[in-house]
Design a protein that fits this description.
CATH topology of the largest domain: Aspartate Aminotransferase, domain 2
Bound molecules: ligand KE4
Number of domains: 2
Strand content: 15-25%
Distance between the termini: 21 Å
Helix content: 25-40%
Strand order of the largest sheet: 4-15-14-13-10-5-9-7
Number of helices: 12
CATH class of the largest domain: Alpha Beta
Largest sheet: 8 strands, mixed
C-alpha cells in the first residue's frame, strides 16, 4: 500500500493542528506509522486519500453501528438539513429521541442531550454533586470518561487514593476531590468510602472499553450498588461506548444492576456530535431551568444530530435481532484471532460483549487496568501495522475496543482472520 498522499497530508495538518489531529489517539503515536487520511466510507469499508480500502473495525470509535453511509440515516439527515442546521430552540426530534431512550432504560425518566460524551459525563458528575451536596467522587483506573478536568487524574501509590492531575493544565485543586479505585476490586472502593465521607457518586464504565475491553464482574457491580446505597452516593454508569453496542440496552441486558444516572453518546448521534445523560425525574428536576444546577449548550439537541441519532435508534429498535448477528461475528473474529496467535505460539486473551471485541497479547485474563498494562504492546503495534497494510483497520491502541457493524459481513470477518494469520507469521 502507498501512503504518499496521507504522509503529505499529515505533514500539512501538523503545520496547523497540534499533532496533526483533532483527537490524540488518531495520531497513531502508540502504534507508529502515518495515520491514513480518510476520504470516504462505504458500508463496512473506509477508503483513504491514496485509494487504499480497509475493513473498518473502528467505526469512528463506536457510533457507526450501521456502517458508513447508511441510506436510512442519510435520508433522515438530508431532509433535516433542508429545514435548517440549528435553531437554538426546542424541536420535536429531541423529544422523540428522548422518549426512546427513556423507554429503553430502567430508572431513567428524563434525559438531556449535549454535544459529546465528555460533556455528558461532566454534567452527570455536576448533577450528582449538586443533588447530594457532596464534592468527592470515585472513578476507576483504566476507565475513561472524557477529558473534563476532574476526570484527568492518575492514581497515587495505593489502590485507593485521591487522584493527582494526569495532565498539565489541570490544577490539583480540581482533582483533589477525585478518588481512584481499582476496577473489579470492591475492597478498593470500600477503602475510598473510608477515606471520604463526602462522596457524591461513583462513576464506572460497566463494560470498560478504554483499557481494552474489560467487563466488570456481576458480583462487583452488585456490591458497588450496595456500597452506594449504604453511603448515600449515586451510581453513574458511563455507557457512552457500551450503550447500544454491548446490547440494544447497553449493560442493562447484561447485568441486573441499575445505575442512578447513565451517560450515553456515540450511537445516539450515529456519527454526529451527541452525548446525553439521564436519571429519575426527581434527580433531573434539580437541573436548570427546573432546578438550580446549571448546564447548557448552544448546539445541545442539534436537529441534524438528533435526526441522525433518531434514525439510527429507530432502526435498532425495529431490528433488535441484529445483535445476535453482531455478537456472532465478533465472536468468530476473536476465535480466528486466537487461532492465528496459537499458530505462531503467542498468547492472546480475547473478550466480546455484543458488537464490541477486544484482544490482548497476554496469557493473563484481564480484570483491571494493571492487568491490561501487562500485555505485549510492542507486538500489538507491529500487528496493527501489518494488518493496516493488508487492508484491516483496527483501533490504533491496545487499550481501545473494536466494533462490528451491520455492514461487517462474514466474508470481511474471514478476510480479517486470514490477514491476522498472515500478519503474525510475518512478524514472528
Ligand atoms: P467524547 O467526548 O470523546 O465524545 O466521549 C468521551 C467518552 C466518555 N465515556 C466513554 C466511556 C468513552 O469511551 C468516551 C470516548 N471514547 C474514546 C474512545 N476510547 C473516544 C476517542 C477519542 O478520544 O478520540
Amino acid at each position: 500500500m502507498s501512503y504518499k498522499k496521507s504522509e503529505e497530508a499529515f505533514r500539512e495538518a501538523f503545520s496547523v493542528i497540534p499533532g496533526g489531529v483533532d483527537s490524540p489517539v488518531r495520531a497513531f503515536s502508540s502504534v507508529g506509522g502515518t495515520p491514513p487520511f480518510i476520504d470516504r466510507g462505504e458500508g463496512g469499508y473506509i477508503i483513504d486519500i491514496d485509494g487504499n480500502r480497509y475493513i473498518d473495525f473502528v467505526q469512528s470509535w463506536g457510533p457507526l453501528i450501521f456502517g458508513h453511509c447508511d441510506k436510512d440515516i442519510e435520508v433522515a439527515v438530508e431532509s433535516a438539513v433542508k429545514k435548517g442546521l440549528s435553531f437554538g430552540a426546542p424541536t420535536l426530534t429531541e423529544t422523540k429521541l428522548a422518549k426512546h431512550i427513556v423507554n429503553m432504560f430502567e430508572r431513567i425518566d428524563k434525559v438531556r442531550f449535549v454535544s459529546s460524551g465528555t460533556e455528558a459525563v461532566m454534567s452527570a458528575i455536576r448533577l450528582a454533586r449538586g443533588y447530594t451536596k457532596r464534592d468527592d467522587f470515585i472513578k476507576f483506573t483504566g476507565c475513561y470518561h472524557g477529558h473534563s478536568d476532574s476526570l484527568l487524574v492518575q492514581a497515587g501509590s495505593g489502590m485507593a487514593t485521591f487522584g493527582s492531575p494526569s495532565s498539565p493544565g489541570v490544577p490539583a485543586d480540581l482533582t483533589k476531590h477525585t478518588l481512584l479505585a481499582q476496577y473489579n476490586n470492591i475492597e478498593s472502593v470500600k477503602e475510598c468510602f473510608k477515606n471520604s465521607k463526602d462522596i457524591a457518586c461513583v462513576i464506572i464504565e460497566p463494560i470498560a472499553g478504554n483499557m481494552g475491553l474489560v467487563p466488570a464482574d456481576e458480583e462487583f457491580l452488585v456490591e458497588l450498588r450496595e456500597l452506594c446505597n449504604e453511603n448515600g452516593a449515586l451510581l453513574i454508569f458511563d455507557e457512552v461506548m457500551s450503550g447500544f453496542r454491548a446490547s440494544l440496552k447497553g449493560s442493562q441486558e447484561l447485568t441486573k444492576v441499575r445505575a442512578d444516572i447513565i451517560t450515553l453518546g456515540k450511537v445516539i448521534g450515529a456519527g454526529m456530535p451527541v452525548g446525553a445523560f439521564g436519571a429519575s425525574g426527581e434527580i433531573m428536576s434539580h437541573l436548570s431551568p427546573e432546578g438550580a444546577i446549571y448546564q447548557a449548550g448552544t448546539l445541545s439537541g442539534n436537529p441534524i444530530a438528533m435526526s441522525a441519532g433518531l434514525a439510527s435508534l429507530e432502526k435498532l429498535l425495529a431490528n433488535p435481532e441484529i445483535y445476535i448477528t453482531l455478537e456472532k461475528r465478533a465472536k468468530r473474529l476473536m476465535e480466528g484471532f486466537k487461532e492465528a496467535s496459537e499458530e505462531v505460539g503467542v498468547s492472546m486473551v480475547t473478550e466480546v460483549r455484543g458488537s464490541m471485541f477486544g484482544f490482548f497479547f497476554s496469557d493473563k485474563k484481564v480484570k483491571n487496568f494493571e492487568d491490561a498494562l501487562e500485555n505485549n504492546s510492542e507486538l500489538f503495534g507491529k500487528f496493527h501495522g501489518k494488518m493496516l497494510e493488508k487492508g484491516i483497520y483496527l483501533a490504533c491502541s491496545a487499550y481501545e475496543t473494536g466494533f462490528i457493524s451491520t455492514a461487517t459481513t462474514d466474508e470481511m470477518i474471514e478476510e480479517a482472520i486470514a490477514m491476522a494469520k498472515e500478519s503474525l507469521k510475518e512478524i514472528l
